[in-house]
Every structure is written in structure tokens, then in C-alpha cells.
Design brief:
With 271 residues, the chain is mainly beta. It has helices at 7-23, 159-166, and strands spanning 32-41, 47-55, 60-67, 74-76, 83-88, 94-98, 101-107, 109-118, 126-136, 140-150, 179-187, 190-198, 207-211, 217-219, 223-227, 230-239, 253-257, 262-266, 269-270.
Length: 271
């Protein structure tokens, strides 16, 4: 687990090359489309909405932590009007085997719930932006999706948004997590993080995903195994641009993906 190759970064360049022959045959907007769903106002005065990414048959896109064989979506909402704060809820993703490497994402469709706090509650909110995605089937293609949508404050409850919210991972309390500790030890050029999570099984062959909490740190694919009532997850962390490495345990995020459900664990203590 001490390889210094960063597959996610390498794949970004590979995607650009892989897309060249395909673009001559198929336009990206024939493979994937994006639109916004309205869910109206919440009791807190925020807007409930969702970004819907619709994929052609057999294609998939990626989660925020896409594994060794994917790239995460990137969002730019800089042209929006009256946008104060945006809170994204990620539905539980699927784990895929892609050419011998693990990737994490969604197939057919991704409905990504977004709760929006307006900068000025007396004025409407218009979302204008771009979403950079990677989509894969037999070949991987990078795409840029444009969004321009004024949110509808009078819209009613949207079943698609409600279903996506219901697919979110459990919190640590809902998942029965009683403790989560992280032990750090040096490896060549980085640190090894060993997480021990006391929790009931999430079902089947569990996969833990460790996010180090900083875009300046790259995490290798996590090795996951059970020791009775404890889940052990191990990942090697490296600084993306070299130099010293500092890991804030309180910022570490561990998601356990199981057959029955997933569990989202924020932070871990020394152990």
C-alpha cells in the first residue's frame, strides 16, 4: 500500500485522451444531461432542490470520493444570483470493479439533493453554473454540463428528491457506531491511517472509504476487514504536491458501504 502513483490524478489526463476518438462519433450531451428539480421552500425558509444527472444506458458517473478509477464531479456556481449557502446530500453510491480497480458512483441516474439558503430571503434564487463530470462505459469521457434554473418557491414536495434523501447514508448514531479511532504511522513519503470502528455490520462485504479531509492529501484505496464487532479500515495518505503531511483527525470522513445500508462517520479520535 505504499505506491506513490496517484491513480485519480493520472486518470484525469487519461480521460482527456480517451475522449478524443469518441467525440468524433458521439456528442457528450447525447450521453449525459443535467437539469434541476424543484422541491419548494422548507420550514426554515431554504429552497429544496436537486441536480439530476441522467445517463445513457450502461453509462455511469462518480461519487465525491470516486475510488482509484474515477474522477469526482466539480461544481462551479459562480454565475448564480442570490445564492447564499448550498448544502449537498449525497445518496449512497454503488461500488464497481473497473478494469481491476475499484470505482464508486452511480449508474443510469443521479439525483443529488441540494438545500439552498438565499443571500436575501426576499429575492428569488437563480442557479447558473457548470458541472464537470466523468462518465464511463467501455471508454471514459469528460463532460461539462450547464445549468440555468430559477428556483420555484411555490413548488410542492418532489418525490424524486424525497427518494434521494431517503437513500443517504446513516449517521453514526443511526448506524450504531459506538467509537471510531484513527492510528497514524509513517510510510515512505506519507502516513498510514488505520481506523477501527465499533459498529454492527452494514451487511455483506463492507467497503470503507476514507476521505482525509483536505484536497491536498491523496488517499489510497482502503483495505477493509471485520474483526468481530469492529471494522478495520486502512489507507495510505500522501501529500499531492509533496512536502510535509498533516492529518486532522476531526476532518477525516469514513463512509462504510454495505449491502443493507451505508454509514457516514465524521471524525475519529486518536487510537
Amino acid at each position: 500500500m505504499t505506491s506513490r502513483v496517484f491513480p485519480v490524478l493520472a486518470l484525469a489526463a487519461a480521460l482527456a485522451l480517451a475522449a478524443l476518438p469518441l467525440r468524433a462519433q458521439v456528442k457528450v450531451d447525447e450521453l449525459v444531461q443535467a437539469d434541476m428539480l424543484d422541491g419548494g421552500l422548507t420550514k426554515r425558509g431554504t429552497y429544496m432542490s436537486a441536480l439530476r444527472i441522467s445517463l445513457s444506458d450502461g453509462w455511469k458517473t462518480y461519487w465525491r470520493a470516486p475510488g482509484d478509477a474515477g474522477i469526482p464531479p466539480q461544481f462551479d456556481w459562480g454565475r448564480s444570483q442570490n445564492l447564499g449557502h448550498m448544502e449537498i446530500t449525497w445518496p449512497t453510491p454503488h461500488v464497481f470493479d473497473q478494469n481491476g480497480m475499484q470505482s464508486i458512483g452511480y449508474k443510469t441516474q443521479l439525483v443529488l439533493p441540494v438545500e439552498i439558503t438565499p443571500a436575501d430571503p426576499t429575492r428569488p434564487v437563480r442557479l447558473r453554473g457548470k458541472v464537470e463530470v466523468g462518465i464511463c462505459k467501455d471508454i471514459c469521457v469528460p463532460g461539462t454540463l450547464s445549468v440555468d434554473h430559477q428556483l420555484d418557491a411555490k413548488a410542492g414536495r418532489n418525490p424524486a428528491i424525497a427518494a434521494a434523501m431517503a437513500q443517504r447514508p446513516f449517521t453514526r448514531k443511526e448506524g450504531g457506531v459506538t467509537s471510531s479511532t484513527c492510528r497514524l504511522s509513517p510510510v515512505d513519503g506519507g502516513m498510514r491511517l488505520e481506523a477501527r470502528i465499533a459498529m454492527p455490520s452494514a451487511g455483506g462485504q463492507e467497503v470503507a472509504v476514507i476521505e482525509p479531509g483536505s484536497p491536498r492529501i491523496w488517499a489510497s484505496q482502503t483495505q477493509t476487514r471485520r474483526e468481530g464487532g469492529t471494522l478495520l479500515a486502512v489507507s495510505d495518505l500522501f501529500p499531492v504536491s509533496g512536502g510535509p503531511l498533516a492529518v486532522d483527525r476531526s476532518a477525516v470522513r469514513i463512509t462504510v458501504l454495505g449491502r443493507r445500508h451505508a454509514v457516514d462517520i465524521r471524525g475519529c479520535t486518536s487510537g
